Amino acid sequence: QGQLQESGGGSVQAGGSLRLSCTARGFSTDKCTMDWYRQTPGNQRAWITSIYTDGDATHHYFVKGRFMASRDKTTAYLQMNNLKPGDSAMYFCQSRGCEYKYWGQGTQVTVSS
Question: What pLDDT shows up at residue 69?
Answer without folding.
Answer: 96
